[in-house]
Write a structure and sequence with these properties.
The protein is α/β, with parallel strands linked by helices. It is built from 14 helices and 22 strands. The longest helix is centred in the N-terminal third of the chain and has 23 residues. Bound molecules: flavin-adenine dinucleotide (FAD).
Length: 471
């Protein structure tokens, strides 16, 4: 195809080279549609799957945990299938392997963590009951309160944090009960055998996306380093304008940009997106989620996998993860700490040197006997300020309805389509959500290319506010 800037035409333009975009392209290819072009702003495929090297060790700074691997008889998580296909090494994660600390140093409050876990399970059950009765969505905080769970000490807050904020990236006040239960229940099912796994592959977990793409995509079907500025659509045609002025037309455009990118108006639509679509996009938030990696000259911390820290201020460096662990990277000297929500926005705004000072002060508090040194390296990806992502992953506000969810993934006029982790009802925020949506929406496009079935498009409801139904 012509890349000189004079314009060209494809059957399908796939916008974005994360999991959703690559799996959509594969789905088109498998149906014999090779007249597509995948456009990606970055210089490589992978999207929110990214790695960084500290010392000699490659760590995952974005999606890298396979949540709900579903071994045994259950349908396996397709992300695990991809990892196995491309010999990407992973290790199990043991969530029961915690050490406990508070602002006085080591402190054992595992009983409080067990209580928080019980409250989480009860909230998931309550969500199922409310959904089957068609009741309106409520926040996870409201649900916890209804269940009598009212944490009122730093140790109880940290315990609650481990089940909610660490998983969803936002506090229970901002988490939809219904949507979080859908995600939790579909990810983990009834399984007691399902485990999470973490990538340990030194090529980076992005290998699952890049190797998969290399197995079917040609150089002519991929346009890297190219930013989409605007998308025009009508019932007859679509066209996309890149930041270098190149205009590409297509029968169909599939947009897989994050909800954060769509919310920030980084890409303009001509005409503007209809109100029902804008309301759906605005009913999600992009979580602020920062895992801060540090490499120390020597290991001075716990031998367990995780450390939970209860500061007086909820959410202040609450989770520590030891990568210098026999299952991960022994002798690497790597320890991470995860912050979310407002504290993540704070660390995104300050310098790495300031973060170092804060974290070292906390580490000195929790290891009063140890020789706590400065980290030799500190890195985290500032997802919130990255214009290609604008946050970590999508979370529904406590205003989830079936109609808003359907409107989020509905096409516009049978020409402009949307897919990605955010459009997934059952796995929103997760890599498998992006995978299934890329596959499913590409199949809808195939119907409209007259390759398979009838072109009906995906239904939407113009008056989204008319119904509260969550089922
Ligand atoms: C810190 C962090 C931790 C996470 N942890 C996990 C985890 O443990 N388990 C899990 O399952 N998931 C996790 N996730 C979520 C997971 O990474 C995502 O759900 C998934 O990778 C999203 O894939 P996607 O294809 O929907 O979107 P993306 O990967 O965002 O793909 C969209 C692509 O569009 C490109 N793009 C954006 N704007 C433009 C433009 N204007 N022009 C051209 N291209 C553009 C982007 O560069 C990107 O490559 C995590 C995410 C983060 C950030």
């Amino acid at each position: 195809q012509d890349s000189s800037g004079s314009g060209d035409h494809y059957s399908v333009l796939v916008l974005g080279g994360g999991i959703a975009g690559v799996i959509a392209a594969r789905t088109l290819h498998e149906a014999g549609v090779d007249d597509y072009l995948l456009v990606e702003a970055n210089t490589e495929l992978g999207g929110r799957i990214r790695n960084w090297q500290l010392g000699d060790t490659v760590v995952e700074v974005g999606g890298g945990w396979i949540q709900g691997s579903q071994p045994g008889d259950e349908a396996q998580n397709p992300i695990l299938t991809l990892a196995e296909m491309w010999n990407v090494s992973t290790a199990p994660i043991d969530y029961s392997d915690f050490s406990y600390y508070d602002f006085t140093g080591p402190a054992n409050y595992s009983d409080q963590e067990a209580v928080a876990g019980g409250s989480f399970d009860s909230a998931m059950t309550l969500a199922g009951e409310r959904r089957s009765q068609g009741l309106v969505d409520i926040s996870a905080r409201t649900a916890l309160s209804l269940l009598g769970s009212v944490p009122s000490s730093p140790q109880a807050w940290a315990s609650e944090y481990a089940f909610w904020d660490w998983e969803f990236g936002v506090p229970p006040e901002e988490t939809s009960l219904i949507a979080s239960a859908l995600r939790n229940n579909y990810t983990f099912g009834d399984s007691t055998t399902s485990t999470d796994r973490i990538s340990t592959d030194q090529r980076g977990f992005k290998t699952i996306v890049q190797s998969e793409a290399a197995s079917f995509m040609t150089e002519q079907q991929l346009l890297l380093n190219s930013t989409v500025k605007s998308i025009s659509y009508s019932s007859d045609n679509t066209s996309v304008t890149l930041s270098n002025g190149r205009v590409i037309t297509a029968d169909h455009v599939l947009c897989t940009f994050s909800a954060g990118v769509l919310q920030h108006n980084d890409v303009t639509f001509e005409p503007a997106l209809p109100d029902w679509k804008r309301e759906a996009i605005s009913s999600l938030t992009m979580s602020s989620y920062s895992e801060i990696f540090m490499r120390f000259p020597n290991k001075f911390w716990f031998d367990s996998t995780f450390g939970l820290y209860a500061d007086r201020a909820r959410g202040t460096y609450p989770i520590f993860h030891s990568y210098d662990h026999p299952d991960l990277f022994p002798d690497s000297g790597i320890l991470s700490t995860t912050v979310t929500g407002d504290y993540s926005r704070w660390v995104t705004a300050i310098s790495n040197e300031e973060i170092k000072d804060e974290v070292v002060a906390v580490l000195k508090t929790i290891f009063p006997e140890a020789n706590v040194t400065e980290p030799e390296e500190l890195f985290f990806h500032r997802w919130d300020s990255d214009p290609w992502f604008r946050g970590a992953s999508s979370v529904w506000f406590p205003a989830y309805t079936k109609v808003r969810q359907q409107n989020l993934r509905a096409d516009i006029g049978g020409r402009l389509w949307f897919a990605g982790e955010a459009t997934s009802r059952d796995f929103n925020g997760l890599m498998q959500g992006a995978y299934f949506e890329g596959q499913d929406i590409a199949q809808e496009i195939l119907k409209c290319l007259n390759v398979t079935g009838n072109c009906a498009g995906l239904s939407f409801t113009d008056k989204a506010l008319a119904t509260n139904a969550t089922a």
